[in-house]
């Protein structure tokens, strides 16, 4: 960035509109801006006052000082004598919070550290190397970009991302970045491990909903009914998207967000955070910060699971704060049914007292929605509601 452009950014005050000509600079992402000595937030990133995180003054809609301790689910206990109790805890977490932390999940600390490390090294590459993967094509196997939806966002968010289609892995892995040189190996291992964890967790969720039969330990791996096997097979064949997020230090974090309030489109999201706080969820009408737990996954209910459960399990609004001191990395593994599959409430959860509450929906409808408007909160899911 030229000295003249740096001066323009550093001298621009909130409310000035005279730097819209630098739109192409914003499209290059926030890391590009940060690396060029930005010391004031460009207007393109300044949210309306009602949407700002308001961290420096009292905000009745934000819980300050109190971090939210999400329910902690010990994955290992699903395979022990306490399975029925853990299933109840899982159901309560999905109903009351829409989020929980998963510990003892079986993915090694090395696999987790390697994923964070290789994502960090990818974002440290020169802009020209990252820019090879810039595209507005949402079907691309690799997509590098910025903000939430850079083609539609009227105000940009303080985030750069790398999105990787991940299932079936052999189809997509050759298209993933070849730099850093170990990226495909480390990220591919992470994708396989999180896919397996998702399937095991989904089986527990289906059991907690009463869709899959409860088995005792010695029966658990025996043949299930054909209907149940077909349900689980659909998830085995389902979609997976790995999203690495990078949030560099922000000069004025009170004026913007790393990600706006949104719910996740899919069935379940497995989120890996580094030690830097940033994730907030909406709980009992207030924004609360999720405290990171080392090597744990934050799991959240997606829109598809809300539809599939006929509203019993709710997807929850969440957003990301940024700060002026530390960069933050997170890696989300988003899972759902196959992209060609129609998502609908399970017939087992529909009766006279609980009528069907959502329209059948498919991925094409979601893509059409994304291409036609700026995503906000749970607007897409709300558009699928029948009652």
UniProtKB/TrEMBL annotation:
Pfam families to which the protein is assigned, alphabetical: 2OG-FeII_Oxy, DIOX_N
Listed PANTHER family: OXOGLUTARATE/IRON-DEPENDENT DIOXYGENASE
InterPro entries reported in the protein's UniProt record: DIOX_N, IPNS-like_FE2OG_OXY, IPNS-like_sf, Oxoglu/Fe-dep_dioxygenase_dom, Plant_2OG-oxidoreductases
Any one GO cellular component localisation term in the record: cytoplasm
Source species, domain of life: Eukaryota
The protein, known as: 2-oxoglutarate and Fe(II)-dependent oxygenase superfamily protein
The entry's keywords: Cytoplasm, Iron, Metal-binding, Nucleus, Oxidoreductase, Vitamin C
């Amino acid at each position: 960035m030229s000295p003249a452009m740096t001066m323009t950014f550093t001298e621009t005050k909130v409310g000035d509109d005279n730097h819209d000509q630098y739109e192409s600079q914003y499209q290059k992402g926030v890391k590009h801006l940060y690396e060029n000595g930005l010391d004031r937030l460009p207007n393109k990133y300044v949210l309306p006052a009602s949407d700002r995180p308001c961290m420096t003054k009292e905000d009745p809609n934000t819980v300050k000082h109190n971090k939210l301790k999400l329910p902690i689910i010990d994955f290992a206990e699903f395979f022990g004598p306490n399975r029925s109790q853990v299933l109840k805890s899982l159901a309560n977490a999905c109903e009351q919070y829409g989020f929980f932390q998963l510990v003892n999940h079986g993915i090694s600390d090395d696999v987790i550290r390697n994923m964070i490390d290789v994502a960090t090294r990818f974002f440290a590459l020169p802009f020209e190397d990252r820019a090879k993967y810039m595209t507005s094509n949402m079907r691309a196997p690799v997509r590098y970009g910025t903000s939430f939806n850079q083609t539609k966002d009227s105000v940009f968010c303080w985030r750069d991302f790398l999105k990787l289609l991940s299932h079936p892995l052999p189809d997509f892995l050759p298209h993933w970045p070849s730099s850093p040189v170990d990226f495909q190996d480390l990220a591919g291992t992470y994708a396989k491990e999180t896919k397996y964890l998702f399937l095991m967790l989904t089986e527990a969720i289906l059991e907690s909903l009463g869709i899959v039969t409860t088995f005792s330990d010695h029966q658990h791996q025996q043949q299930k009914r054909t209907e149940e096997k077909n349900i689980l097979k659909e998830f085995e064949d389902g979609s997976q998207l790995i999203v690495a997020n990078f949030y560099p230090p922000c000069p004025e974090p009170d004026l913007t967000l790393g990600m706006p309030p949104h719910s996740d489109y899919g069935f379940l999201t497995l989120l890996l955070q580094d030690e830097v706080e940033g994730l907030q969820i909406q709980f009992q009408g207030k924004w609360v910060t999720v405290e990171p737990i080392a090597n744990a996954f934050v799991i959240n209910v997606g829109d598809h699971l809300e539809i599939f459960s006929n509203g019993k399990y709710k997807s929850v609004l969440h957003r990301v704060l940024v700060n002026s001191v530390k960069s933050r990395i997170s890696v989300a593994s988003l899972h759902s049914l196959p992209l060609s599959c129609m998502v609908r409430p399970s017939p087992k959860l529909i009766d006279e007292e609980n009528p069907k509450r959502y329209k059948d929906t498919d991925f094409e409808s979601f893509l059409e929605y994304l291409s036609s408007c700026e995503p906000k909160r749970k607007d897409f899911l709300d558009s699928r509601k029948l009652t």
